[in-house]
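Bumping my old thread because nobody answered last time. Still need a sequence for this structure:
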């Protein structure tokens, strides 16, 4: 485990894999996730990430005279073959049929963060649904090199915005939906060639701590969304969250009920143990990846939270793309109890 980023931290935290129930149901195509239609005790969130949905066909060479040239070559030789538009069509159909209370998209909608890619992604998001039911946070590919907000993220502004007005690009963002507080962090920033690191920064972390404290006091189910995996050592050093130690210090003081992320393009399940807090962390693979690689095959999570005693029961259903059926089907379900993490 890489603890180099928290040498000065007094917070104790570690990585361990969550012990989960064995598959509760393997029957493909069955959906056991139900909402309680505004009752306040159940909240169903669909979480997907890294759709990398844009095409770079026709990109002028002059747009590639920086780190983007490497990214373009990666797209041309590999990524355009593994991130499939027809899988994203199936994703739209499946989420439409499941009709969760809310959808969270944890970044990397684009490849190189070009303005035209932002426009392509905006059109796709409109097909997915209305901005008040879809929360998007940025990934490192969306901030590949510095670009003006007006030419890029403004295209998604309604999907990025919190409930309260804030200056463009200010994070965290907070949306309260039923019993849930969706707290979106931004770890997206440009990095050097061959690096895909992210960071949050002290200003964002200070605001994050206040939001955790306030939403915890209100008894809300605090769901933290970020692009990079927050558990040190859970991803290669060149892709890591550089200030994961500082994030853990905040979480150790204030707690959160669950953390959801993307970036690794793999299914991940860990616990972030910070101080006295023990927080489940789940990552999803890319939502558009070809099933030619079983580990990386397109997948999304349906997270059903139900209030139970002094906490929440979380039923996490993994839905994976089946090429044979050209649709998403149930891969497995896991259930765990999320005790309220008090400050
Ligand atoms: Fe990605
Ligand atoms: Fe990423």
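Sorry it took so long. Here it is:
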């Amino acid at each position: 485990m890489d603890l180099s980023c928290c040498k000065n931290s007094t917070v104790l935290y570690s990585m361990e894999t969550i012990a989960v129930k064995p598959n509760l149901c393997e029957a493909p195509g069955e959906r056991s996730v139900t909402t309680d239609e505004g009752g306040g005790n159940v909240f169903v969130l669909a979480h997907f990430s890294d759709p990398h949905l844009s095409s770079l066909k026709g990109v002028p060479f002059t747009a590639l005279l920086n780190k983007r040239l490497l990214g373009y070559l990666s797209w041309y030789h590999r990524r355009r073959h593994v991130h499939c538009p027809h899988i994203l069509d199936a994703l739209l159909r499946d989420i439409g049929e499941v009709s969760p209370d809310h959808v969270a998209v944890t970044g990397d909608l684009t490849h190189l963060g070009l303005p035209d890619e932002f426009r392509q992604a905006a059109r796709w998001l409109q097909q997915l649904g209305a901005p008040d039911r879809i929360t998007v946070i940025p990934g490192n590919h969306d901030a590949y090199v510095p670009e003006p907000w007006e030419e890029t993220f403004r295209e998604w502004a309604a999907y990025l915005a919190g409930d309260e007005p804030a200056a463009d690009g200010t994070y965290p963002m907070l949306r309260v939906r039923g019993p849930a507080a969706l707290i979106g962090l931004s770890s997206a920033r440009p990095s050097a060639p061959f690096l895909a690191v992210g960071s949050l920064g002290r200003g964002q972390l200070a605001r994050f701590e206040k939001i955790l404290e306030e939403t915890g006091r209100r008894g809300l189910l605090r769901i933290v969304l970020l692009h990079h995996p927050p558990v040190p050592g859970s991803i290669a050093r060149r892709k890591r969250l550089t200030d994961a130690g500082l994030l853990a210090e905040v979480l150790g003081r204030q707690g959160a009920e669950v953390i959801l992320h993307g970036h690794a393009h793999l299914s991940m399940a860990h616990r972030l143990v910070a101080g006295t807090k023990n927080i489940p962390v789940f990552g999803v693979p890319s939502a558009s990846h070809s099933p030619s690689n079983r580990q990386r095959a397109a997948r999304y999570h349906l997270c059903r939270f139900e209030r139970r005693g002094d906490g929440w029961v979380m039923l996490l259903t993994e839905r994976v793309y089946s090429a044979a059926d050209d649709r998403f089907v149930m891969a497995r379900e896991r259930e765990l109890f999320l005790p309220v993490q008090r400050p």
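Residues 19-339 form a domain with the Purple Acid Phosphatase; chain A, domain 2 fold (CATH 3.60.21.10). Let me know if any region looks off to you.
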